[in-house]
Amino acid sequence: MKVLITGASGFSGIHMIEFLSIQEDIRITGLARKTPEHFSSAQNIAWVEGDILNPAKIFNTISAIKPDAIIHLAGLNRGSLQDLQKTNVTGTQNILDATLKINPDCRILAISSSAVYGYAGNTPIVESQILKPLSEYGVSKAAQDTLCQMYNKTKGCQVAVARPFNLVGPYQPASFVCGRIVQQIIEIEQGKRTCLDLLETRSCRDFIDVRDVVKAYWMLLIHTKFKEDCAGKVFNIGSGKTYAISTVIDQLREITGKKYQLHRSASSPLITIPSQMSDNSRIHRITGWNPHISLKESLSDMLNAARNDLHA
């Protein structure tokens, strides 16, 4: 099976490749703007440098690979609405258009985000929830979702959409809240800072380990009845639990056996999404997927990975 992964050098992409690299009979091609150095010599992975906003490059890449499946991770999560829409919507359209011309039966999993829901109350969110995004990123992802469903209904594109909730896991960058907290703990251990500096600790999120998430992506993509059960549909991927950011800090204190002083923003930030929690019943019913990695295990692995990087 030939699999193309866009955004392959990103946080999720690296974990996706690590997961697929141990599977049998898989030929992996990673598409990224730049090939990661630590993967450049891997024998079972081919790398292609390119930008999803370059339709000619995308067409030529897909034409050369002729993938059986595409995991579309590439996208932008920060920036102006114009830039977000351009990358997340137009970039996705380039992938879909090229795939339809070259292999209409290719299975595609487009990765969206729980940001499309905005605030939906304190009950588990189902995929049929009305989308009310509260950020430019969420707006762009909602548009991407709509595009994918339109391509399935009107053009027969075999594309499904996955909506992961808040990712955690080893090597997470500081642009994510758990990655930022872990980075600051490492800096405290190095003597570079004396406290955790956060805007707020009250909001609650559904944290899900990226290693559980990439397994969910794969289980969707290889589902025997992908065309009937997955294409044209949306799938939540979360832990089904919520944790306050203060709980994340408490768990890190338990892991390290240390207390951390906390410095909050002097001005109370507006918390537009006080809480989010996923309902995973659809993906469980279709594939049998369930998350297995606890938040505490995720945080412990994140700390260990960050410390190992320092020693390396």
Key phrases:
single chain; 312 residues; alpha/beta; Rossmann fold; UDP-galactose 4-epimerase, domain 1; 2 domains; two-stranded parallel ribbon; globular
Strand content: 15-25%
* Straight-line N-to-C gap: 35 Å
> What Rg is obtained from the alpha carbons, in whole angstroms?
19 Å
Largest sheet: 7 strands, parallel
- Tally of contiguous helical segments: 10
Q: Give the CATH architecture of the largest domain.
A: 3-Layer(aba) Sandwich
Backbone shape:
globular
SSE order: EHEEHEHEHEEHEEEHHEEHEHH
According to CATH, what is the topology of the largest domain? Answer: Rossmann fold
Arithmetic mean of pLDDT:
94
Strand order of the largest sheet: 3-2-1-4-5-6-11
The domain tally reads: 2
Structural class call reads alpha/beta
User: CATH superfamily membership of the largest domain, which one?
Assistant: NAD(P)-binding Rossmann-like Domain
Q: Quaternary status of these chains?
A: single chain
Low-confidence stretches: none
How many beta-strand elements?
Answer: 13
Just give the CATH class of the largest domain: Alpha Beta
- Estimate the helix proportion, in percent: 40-55%
